[in-house]
Specification:
The structure is a single chain. By secondary structure, the chain is an all-alpha fold. Helix content is about 50%, strand content about 0%. The relative contact order is 0.08.
Length: about 90
């Protein structure tokens, strides 16, 4: 029956479509939200004179492995990098 099909669509499918559209709108709005200001740490300045630090980025540590500025940790990571042949 066409009436039953129409009623099924209004009761079951239409609310799910509204939810999907709402979720899509929220996700797309969040993608363009402004980022919070992050203070630049001065601990990375300790490695600006190391081999491999080049302008314009200087010392590049995207994972924050030596964000604390620990020289021993930096030397250990550099040693392991050289040992395994992965020089960036």
């Amino acid at each position: 029956n066409a009436f039953e099909d129409d009623q099924f669509f209004r009761e079951k499918v239409y609310p799910n479509m509204k939810t999907a559209i709402l979720a899509t709108l929220i996700a797309s709005a969040a993608a363009f939200a402004p980022n919070a200001k992050v203070a630049k740490t001065t601990s990375l300045n300790a490695f600006e004179d190391e081999l491999g630090a080049q302008p314009p980025l200087g010392f590049f540590d995207p994972l924050g492995l030596v964000a604390d500025g620990d020289q021993e940790k930096f030397d250990r990571l550099r040693y392991v990098e050289l040992k395994h042949g992965r020089i960036s």
